[in-house]
Amino acid sequence: MGIKSIAENRRAYHEYFILEKYDAGMVLMGTEIKSIRKGAVQFKDAYVSFQGGEAILKEMYIAPYEEGNRFNHEETRERKLLLHRSEIQKLEKKVKLKGFTIVPLTLYLKDGRAKLEIGLAKGKELHDKRETDKERTAQREIEKAKKQHR
Asked: Domains in the chain, ordered, with CATH?
């Protein structure tokens, strides 16, 4: 079946330095996966926290499914992430001790199952954001010059 990208959190790359990436499964309800397949997802304020040795995704918006009637899901409910215990312990330790945060980066379907790519992130300062923008602009100009030269 392959991989189909559903949504990408571009804002995360602007707001944070992404140090490590992990793939996680998600525990979803039937109406949630149907909405995800339609692409009705937003990462705006989403983040990952830890409770009782489990990784929990919070504040990710999945629109209600139109044909879901009374069995529809709550839009921003907490969703359990499926990671190996060692990965959870490693991430939880880094978040508590070093002040990192974990943000969702990409939501995709792999062989019909919803997967979430999460990143261990450190917040950028304003000057870091400006530096990143300058680098991006310079790279664009280089590419443009190469294209014109050909």
From this structure: 3-124 (2.40.280.10)
